[in-house]
Design goal:
heterodimer, A: 189 residues, mainly alpha, globular, B: 377 residues, mainly beta, five-stranded antiparallel β-sheet, 3 helices, 9% helix, 42% strand
Chain lengths: 189, 377
C-alpha cells in the first residue's frame, strides 16, 4: 500500500512527539535513548496512528520543538510565548468552531494576506534577535510551500502545540505558587 | 560542531526566511473569482407520466443516507452506508449500479478497516457517502470518525476511473484546524466555471451550520465559507441560479417546529446570507434539491413533525414559492421512517430518488415531470 506524503509526515511526526515527551523526563544519561525507544514504540505499537487519527496532522512548529527536545537543545518555547499562544488560540479555535460569523481558518487556504503579516512578523523577530523563532517560521513556510499542507494555519499551529503551551503555563504557574511564602509561615529574616 | 558567528547567524536566518517566504507566496493559490456553471436553458420534458419504485438489494440490518450519480454510459450508481446499526464497527459504504438487467449485487467500497489502512490512522466508524460524476471521474466523499460521535467527523475522498469497479486510496480533506473534526458531507456539489467544484458541507460540533468548500480542478480545497444562519442548520442542498447566485436549502436543527431554512449567495459562493425560511416544514431531517429539465426546482423531504412520509414540492419561480407535488410513500404507523432523500436528474430527463426505508434498506424510485404534475402513470 502506498503511503501519501501527508500520512508519512503525520505518522513520523507523531512518533517523534511521543518520543520527545520522554526526552523531557529526568532520566539523566538515559534520556535520549528513552526518547528514541519511545519514538520507535509509538511507530510500531499503533500509538502514532492513534494520535494521527485523533489529533490530525501536526504542525511543523511542533515537529521542530520535538526535534529540539530529542537533540537536548534548549527550547525557545518559553512561558511567555506559551501564554501568548494560549490567548491567541482561545480566540482562534473558538471562532473556527462556530462562535461568530467569521471563520479565521478560511484565509489559510488563500494565504497571501496572511503571508504579508508573517513577513512583518519575521522582520520583527529578526530585528529583536529571535533567530530560533525566525528559523522555525522559515521552516513552517517552506513546509507550506512544499505542498504538504492545504492550509497555512496547519503548518503553524495545532491543538497538541496548544496543549503543550497549556502544560508549560500550568507548570510555571504551580512553580510560582509554591515559591510564594505561605500565610502564617515564619517570615524570612 | 561548527560554531557559527552571530553576524553569520543573523544574515543566514534572514536569508532562509526570505527564501521560504518567497516559496510560500509562489505556492499560495490565487484563483480567479468563483463562478457557477449556469443552469442549462429550460425545456419542457417530453417524457410521459411515469413512476416506478423498488428496494435496492438489502445488505445488512440497517441502511441509511443514500446518494446517486449518473455514469458516463448512462448507468445510475448508488451508494449508502449499511451495517448492523448506525455507527457500528461493521458499517461500510456499499455501492451498486443500475443497468438494463437491474440493480447489480452491492459490494462494499469502503470499510472501517480499509479506510484506517489507507490513511494509517484510527477510524472508529463510517458515515454519510456522497457520489458525484464529473464525466471522467466518479468521486466518492464519505464521513469517518476517529473519536466520539458524528460531531467528530472528517471527510475522506476517493475517485474511480472505471465507473466504480476500482477506487483510489482515500485521502482526508483538511477542513478544520481543531484536529480536523466536524466537517460532514451529505449533498451533491455544484460544478464551477473553472473546472472545480463547490462542495456543500456542514459543521456540528457545538454550533451547527452549513459550509461551502471550493475545490480546485485537481480536488484541493482553495476556499471555505460559512453559511451563517440565526438558526441551527445542517446539510445544505444547493442549486445554481446563474453564474453568481445560488440557493441553499438546509435542514432545520433548531427548536421544534422547524422549517426548511434558506441561505443564498450572490458572489459565486464566497459569502452566504441567511434568507427567509420556506413555508415548508422540516422536522430536523435532511432535504434534497435539484433543478428539473423544465427549469423548475424539486424538493424532497419529510412532513411537519415526523419522518413517516417522503414528500415532494415543486417551485416554478426559482425557490420563491413552493407547491406540494406528490407523496412518494407514507405509513403513519408510528415507527416508519422514510428519510434522507437523494435526487438526481438523468440526462434523459428522468428523475431518480433514493431514500432510507425504515432504516432497513434503501428504496429507489424513478419518475417523470409529468408524474410530478399529477398525471397518472
Amino acid at each position: 500500500m502506498m503511503m501519501s506524503a501527508v500520512t508519512a509526515y503525520g505518522l513520523l511526526t507523531h512518533g517523534l512527539i511521543f518520543g520527545a515527551l520522554f526526552a523531557l523526563l529526568p532520566l539523566g544519561p538515559l534520556r535520549h535513548r528513552a526518547a528514541l525507544g519511545a519514538t520507535a514504540l509509538a511507530l510500531v505499537a499503533g500509538i502514532a496512528p492513534s494520535m494521527h487519527g485523533i489529533f490530525g496532522t501536526p504542525s511543523l512548529t511542533l515537529l521542530q520543538l520535538a526535534i529540539l527536545a530529542h537533540a537536548g537543545r534548549p527550547s525557545p518555547f518559553n512561558v511567555r510565548i506559551a501564554c501568548g499562544l494560549l490567548g491567541f488560540s482561545a480566540i482562534f479555535y473558538t471562532a473556527t468552531l462556530g462562535f461568530g460569523p467569521f471563520d479565521p481558518y478560511a484565509p489559510g487556504y488563500q494565504p497571501l494576506p496572511m503571508l504579508t503579516m508573517l513577513a512583518a512578523l519575521g522582520l520583527l523577530l529578526w530585528w529583536r534577535g529571535q533567530y530560533a523563532w525566525l528559523l522555525i517560521l522559515a521552516i513552517d513556510l517552506a513546509g507550506y510551500a512544499s505542498g504538504l499542507f492545504a492550509n497555512l494555519w496547519d503548518a503553524l499551529i495545532d491543538p497538541l502545540l496548544v496543549l503543550l503551551a497549556l502544560i508549560l503555563a500550568g507548570y510555571h504557574g504551580i512553580k510560582r505558587l509554591r515559591r510564594r511564602p505561605q500565610k502564617g509561615a515564619d517570615p524570612v529574616r | 560542531m561548527i560554531a557559527l558567528s552571530p553576524p553569520l547567524i543573523r544574515r543566514a536566518s534572514l536569508a532562509l526566511f526570505v527564501a521560504a517566504l518567497a516559496a510560500a507566496v509562489w505556492r499560495a493559490p490565487n484563483p480567479p473569482a468563483p463562478a457557477f456553471v449556469p443552469p442549462p436553458a429550460s425545456s419542457p420534458s417530453a417524457l410521459p407520466a411515469y413512476f416506478t419504485a423498488a428496494m435496492l438489494p438489502q445488505v445488512a440490518a440497517s441502511a441509511h443516507a443514500a446518494t446517486l450519480a449518473e455514469l458516463p454510459d448512462g448507468r445510475i450508481a448508488a451508494a449508502w452506508f449499511a451495517g448492523s446499526r448506525e455507527g457500528a464497527d461493521d458499517v461500510a459504504i456499499w455501492f451498486t449500479t443500475l443497468d438494463r438487467k437491474g440493480w447489480q449485487e452491492p459490494r462494499p467500497i469502503a470499510t472501517r478497516e480499509s479506510t484506517a489502512g489507507a490513511l494509517f490512522a484510527r477510524i472508529r466508524k463510517l458515515g454519510n457517502p456522497l457520489l458525484y460524476s464529473d464525466g471522467q471521474r466518479l468521486h466518492l466523499w464519505f464521513v469517518s470518525v476517529a473519536v466520539g460521535g458524528w460531531a467528530g467527523s472528517s471527510i475522506n475522498h476517493t475517485v474511480s476511473l472505471d465507473g466504480g469497479d476500482t477506487w483510489s486510496w482515500p485521502t482526508k480533506l483538511q477542513t478544520s484546524p481543531f484536529a480536523n473534526i466536524s466537517t460532514l458531507v451529505r449533498t451533491p456539489p455544484l460544478p464551477l466555471a473553472d473546472g472545480g467544484l463547490g462542495l456543500p458541507v456542514y459543521h456540528e460540533f457545538i454550533a451547527k451550520y452549513g459550509e461551502w468548500l471550493r475545490l480546485s480542478p485537481d480536488g484541493k480545497i482553495i476556499d471555505k465559507a460559512r453559511m451563517v444562519h440565526p438558526v441551527r442548520t445542517l446539510q445544505p442542498a444547493v442549486v445554481a441560479q446563474d453564474s453568481q447566485r445560488a440557493l441553499a436549502l438546509l435542514r432545520d436543527a433548531g427548536p421544534f417546529p422547524g422549517h426548511v431554512r434558506v441561505a443564498t449567495t450572490t458572489d459565486g459562493g464566497q459569502h452566504w446570507q441567511a434568507g427567509e425560511a420556506l413555508p415548508v416544514r422540516n422536522p430536523n431531517s435532511s432535504v434534497a434539491l435539484i433543478r428539473l429539465a423544465s427549469g423548475r426546482l424539486l424538493l424532497a423531504g419529510n412532513p411537519e413533525n415526523s419522518r413517516e412520509a417522503m414528500l415532494l414540492w415543486v417551485s416554478a419561480d426559482d425557490g420563491k414559492t413552493w407547491q406540494p407535488s406528490r407523496t412518494v410513500e407514507t405509513a403513519p404507523d408510528g415507527g416508519a421512517e422514510f428519510s434522507y432523500p437523494a435526487l438526481l436528474l438523468g440526462r434523459d430527463g428522468r428523475i431518480h430518488l433514493a431514500y432510507t426505508w425504515r432504516r432497513q434498506g434503501i428504496k429507489y424510485a424513478t419518475f417523470s415531470e409529468a408524474w410530478l404534475d399529477g398525471a397518472a402513470p
